[in-house]
Amino acid sequence: MNPKDNPASESTVWDAVVIGSGIGGLVTASQLASKGAKTLVLEKYTIPGGSGGSFMRDGYTFDVGASMIFGFGKKGHTNLLTRALSDVGQHCETVPDPVQLSYHLPQNLEIAVDRNYQRYIHDLTSKFPHEEKGIKSFYETCWQVFNCLDAMPLLSIEDPLYLTKVFFKSPLSCLGLARWLPINVGDVARKYIKDPTLLKYIDIECFCWSVMPADKTPMINAGMVFSDRHAGGINYPIGGVGVIAKKLVKGLEQYGGEIRYKARVKRILIEENKAVGVQLANGQKINAHKVISNATRWDTFSGEASDKSLISLENTPKAEFKWRQRYKPSPSFLSLHLGVKDQLIPKNSHCHHLILEEWEDMNKEQGVVFISIPTLLDPSLAPKNHHIVHAFTPSSIEEWNNLNPSEYANRKNKAYDHLIKKLEKIFPGIYDSISHKEIGTPRSHRRFLGRHQGSYGPIPSNRLPGLLTMPLNKTGIRNLFCVGDSCFPGQGLNAVAFSGFACAHRIGADLGINSWSLPN
Question: Residues 6 or more apart from 69 whose CB is under 8 A from it?
Answer without folding.
Answer: 81, 234, 235, 236, 237, 241, 493, 494
